[in-house]
Design brief:
single chain, 86 residues, mainly alpha, 87% helix
């Protein structure tokens, strides 16, 4: 006999996968913004470099902020499920 599949846990796993991808992409954008910053710092900032840095930081923040909050929520939900024996 197989164990029943909990649809909430399946959906939570899908969201966790999306959150993981958002964290990776947001972090990569921050790294890229840092690289552009140091190149600009070494060579003298151009308008294009400044715009690139700002855009990368804004998009990275838009990805990272909600992903971190959702990741924390998923971890707490999993912990509550384990404590309740589900």
């Amino acid at each position: 006999m197989s164990t029943p599949v909990d649809p909430v846990r399946v959906k939570r796993a899908k969201v966790a996968d999306l959150v993981s991808k958002s964290l990776r992409l947001g972090s990569a954008l921050y790294v890229l913004a840092s690289i552009v910053f140091f190149v600009g710092f070494a060579t003298g900032f151009t308008d294009a470099q400044v715009v690139t840095i700002v855009v990368l930081m804004v998009i990275g923040s838009a990805l990272l902020a909600p992903a971190l909050v959702i990741k924390y929520g998923i971890k707490n939900a999993e912990r509550e499920d384990q404590a309740a024996g589900r």
